Amino acid sequence: MKREDIDSIIIHCSATRAGQDLRAKDIDRMHRARGFNQIGYNFVIDLDGTVENGRSLSIDGAHCNTKGFSESSYNKHSVGICYIGGLDVSGKPADTRTPAQRTALRELIAKLCKEYPIIEVLGHRDTSPDLDGSGEIEPAEYIKACPCFDVRSEFSNFLRNTVIRP
Predict the structure, then answer these.
(1) Which pTM value belongs to this model?
(2) How far is CA 152 from CA 9, 39, 40, 92, 137, in A?
């Protein structure tokens, strides 16, 4: 990806149970087992809040192939961030982020918004198709629950105010 093409951030969860400790190398191994040539995410946030580098931002991602509002796959113009967790102890979708993960995610998004012209911060579920054509992706339309919290409301203050001029 070219630096100027990056305009979105997509948040993911690893869909692992609360407290299950994984690292970027574990996700890399899982993604390779699925046929990827390397980890699909650009960053991984561990349980302790450590931010690990994944796939280089100079290479198209492999984390979200839907198109959203653009004509090209999010993989071509977004940063993919995955936090470890997303399922409760019984395996149901839940916001399992530790306090350290919440802080690290907020700091990473703030840093990326300063470095790139970010216009949207989304959860993976927010890229599901708008099945009823209402212009909004509603919970009944989610393909998956990932990342198991409402990214748009939690990070709305990171979006740029766009001025539409006549």
Answers:
(1) 0.88
(2) 11, 25, 22, 21, 11
